[in-house]
Amino acid sequence: MASPSNTTGTGEPSLDEPIKAVPVRHYGRWVAGVLILFLAFIVVRSVVTNENLQWGVVGDYLFDDRILRGLQNTLILTVISMVIGVVGGILLAVMRLSPNPLTSGAAGLYIWLFRGTPLITQLVFWNFLALAYPRLGLGIPFGPEFVGADTNSLITPFIASLLGLGLNEAAYMAEIVRGGILSVDGGQLEAAGALGMSRTKTLRRIILPQAMRVIIPPTGNETIAMLKTTSLVVVIGYFELMVAAQTIYAQNYKIVPLLIVAALWYLFMTSILTLVQMQIEKKFAKGTSREVVTQHKWGSRMLGFRFGRGAGGAGGGA
CA 275, CA 216: separation in Å to the nearest integer? Predict the structure, then answer.
């Protein structure tokens, strides 16, 4: 008995026959991948086999006491400066959005001043504040001073570093927080007001929790940037990671190996911060469309690699 035909009378395929989908061949991707691997091999081989990089010296100083002490000071500066920046940024953002023109104007002036001048200038200014104000104190204008201290003893290089880094960061964080607050639908603020909630309670319980989804990613980037920006305190002589490396190679003239040591520690710390940022973003992205985006692997986040199905995106292309 003859089997039923898979074609119609006109010779065309029957509608009952399953369609065989042929995947698109992206030959350009394979060529680009081979070229990138070839170039990567050349670069890695050059770095590993280059005797001028003195990898033995790198290993000797990677855990040197001075390097570790500088690393510790760098982390302390980063954490405290970001705390100052985040707290100050939230206050400035709330002031900037205040209906009071004086409050809003004061915040706007602060942001304009600290974002409009170089950070290195601010660090030097705070370090030499005693030239303008030899003594700092509190008291009645043109009257007795209640509390006071010599500026040179009060503004140490560490305090000057915190003031320069933290107050400058607050200006940038203010705009980040303000953008996050403005991303929340204004109707929620009106609804909270109709329920009798105060502006402070509305901001704390309704606006900020939703705005965090927008605030967290740039704040993570600012933290990573702050980790590296701390190296600018070299201009005022505070001892941190880069100063530690410079101090050592000023004695033994091993400039390149010590710079590699500092770079390796910076890469390690920024990688840790990136992983922490990913976990925080995942927590605040639950229940939103951004939840899928935050679940990429660490390689995708830090290096841009995408593996597995859908790695090339929905659109395909070479």
Answer: 13
Within a domain: residue 301? no
> Against a cut of 0.90, is the pTM above it?
no
The pLDDT tens digits for 130-164 are: 888 888 767 666 656 666 678 888 889 999 999 99
Tokens 């395929």 correspond to 13
Which pair of structure tokens corresponds to residue 249? Answer: 């190679």
Residue 45 buriedness (CB in 10 A; 0-12 / 13-18 / 19+): exposed
In the chain, how many domains are there? 1
Write out the residue range of the structural domain in which residue 208 sits.
52-139+146-296
Q: What is the pLDDT of residues 66-104, one digit of tens each?
A: 999 999 999 999 999 999 999 999 999 989 988 889 999
Cα three-residue angle 239-245-249, rounded to 5 degrees: 125
CATH number at residue 121: 1.10.3720.10
pLDDT in tens, 93-103: 989 988 889 99
Q: Which two tokens stand for residue 102?
A: 């004086």
